[in-house]
């Protein structure tokens, strides 16, 4: 039995740990509050039952007190009529009723003490529930605020991650733009140097170089002519 109980306790402990991770603190607090309210209602029902019993005993005691008074009157009336036997019987019943009244009064004291204890328990229970309700609302508000902070933090983390991706994209785009610009400049230089062939130019390399030499020579000749004209004009 001890082994089975230990195994059951281990399983229960693990299940409780799993439930702890799954529990919503707000729901757990509300459930605890509901259980406390159920307990308070149970105390109130017990108190109502005991108070009802107290009232019944009080009514019985009043009836017995009336019976005692009636038996006393009967005894007096019997003696006036000279019926000592009837007077004796009435007094015997009176004493029986007095014994019954004593038992009822003792019961009333016991029930009265029980009622007072239940009322005190109800009052203390009510105070505990009131305190718990206040603490519950504070705890729920604190938990909700913490939840909001976590969600904001997660959102900010997501935004930061997205911005990080955008930054990487911009950096790659800039790098590619620089690469393309450098490549375009290189292509232009190579084309100017005649290293790259123009698809619309049918000349071979030698012809292109000769044409370039002629063009440069023409430019030089024109430059010399302009110099002479300028010098002659002065």
Strand content: under 5%
Which structural class matches the secondary elements? Answer: mainly alpha
User: What general form does the structure show?
Assistant: rod-shaped
CATH architecture of the largest domain: Orthogonal Bundle
Rg calculated over all Cα atoms: 56 Å
> Could you report the average pLDDT, rounded to the nearest whole number?
77
The number of strands is 0
Q: Tell me the CATH topology of the largest domain.
A: Helix Hairpins
What is the CATH class designation of the largest domain?
Mainly Alpha
Low-confidence stretches: none
Order of helices and strands: HHHH
Q: Give a quick account of the main beta sheet: strands, pairing sense, barrel closure.
A: none
Percent in helix: over 70%
Taking the alpha carbons of the first and last residues, their distance comes to: 130 Å
- Counted up, domains total 2
Concise synopsis of the structure shown:
This protein is mainly alpha-helical and 234 residues long. The protein is 92% helix and 0% strand.
Summary tags:
single chain; 234 residues; mainly alpha; Helix Hairpins; 2 domains; rod-shaped
